[in-house]
Amino acid sequence: MTRVSQIDPPADIRALSTLPAIDYADGFTVTGGPAGEYSPEQWAHATLSQAPRPVRVKLVVGWTLLGLRLGTRPAGERILGWRIRQRTPDHLLLGAGSQVGLPGELLFCRQPDGLLFATFVGQRSRLARALWPRVIPGHQRIVASLLAHGARRLDQEALTAARN
Hints:
single chain, alpha+beta, Alpha-D-Glucose-1,6-Bisphosphate, Chain A, domain 4, 8-stranded antiparallel beta sheet, globular
């Protein structure tokens, strides 16, 4: 059975960020089942771009309200509006600038027993420092839910592929 747990991202994970300073970071691990068999990019698509349409719309609206600058082009270099900043076999780093001083990054990192997902946020303005603490509880609930649903989606795809 797949399990999602919240952790404090270790220093080697934080070092993958390209933000000049990380003012907030959280992490989640996904373990159990075939969680470790998927690439970071498969995880990113399963949790973000393959989420149900109403969920994707709510995510994009929420990110836009936080001032994140999402885009659509180039299509192959973005996942649900987030620009791919780094892509290796072991990790995928997505990033978005901000209109209000709240730039963010999402990291999907392969682990021996599953996935580590981390969020990195900079707080470059008074507004950002006032806004982000109010967002954290909802952010953490949403991330845990997205990862759990993404794991189920990937497991379902694997079962379907095995049958064919």
